[in-house]
Amino acid sequence: MGKFLRNALFGIAVGDALGVPHEKKPRGSFKCLGWDYTPEPDRKRTWSDDTALTLAELDSLGTLKRVDFDAIMQNFMEWFLMGKFSCTGRCFGAGKSTVHAIKNYCYGKKAIDCGSKDIMSNGNGALMRIMPFCLLREEYRKTFNFDDAVGMTHRHPINLVACCFFDVLVNAIVRGSDLKTAYETAEKSLSQEEKELIQMPSFGLLSERPESEIKSGRFVLDTLWAAIWCVEKTTNYRYAVLKAVDLGDDSDTTASVAGGIAGLIYGIGGEKGVPSNWIEQLACRNWLEDAAEKTAEMTC
Asked: Which cofactor does it need (predicted)?
């Protein structure tokens, strides 16, 4: 139990940390080479809000052994105000919609009512942290509405549908589907109206898109399609996240979402998995290990 969560968590964190130094850089202005040949062997690689908010969720889940959205939002608030769950001891990389939701919680709103329904609140801040909810075992999934897990920070229908699509994709991979089959399974789970809402491409059309047509900004759909495209275009974890980082702009989040998917598919170590020597370089690696261990009985 918890194997997939551990693989995804380290996939997310490594992708996040790889992308942090290149965030907001234009595509083509740099090349991410990974951490195999580093002049600073003792350097610890810093990750950002993608991993911090995922850890904040896992901390609540692992401590309470149940889903409590108010407790999770309390953790989000402590991250934002005090830097808890951040490997630097301070909050950085916080998205506008996430900050708005945390402030709503500070002002007394219930956690599930904090996310904005505004069309402009369709950043990738929910998608980047949603993996723990996707991987909860069925007995825990029955206790909450998945839309509420998304809606803590992003309540617009585009975000809700995008994250639900991601949820089905993830669980199809866990059940043994390859990426194409998982994608098609997730596609079938949506109504025609939902497909139109998220401008759903077929798997074939997405895979055939040239890199010049793959967007890597903060819009949730850009991140979703870019992450899947990177995994589809590569044959192991390493190349998937390096390709994601090289897309530029919101490089850390694109790589963390792609890294989560690739971590599920390829696991950790070996020729195709998350490189063990990269994991060893992560800042606060023990936090990730502890979070995976505390939630092992609750997750796939």
From this structure: Mg(2+)
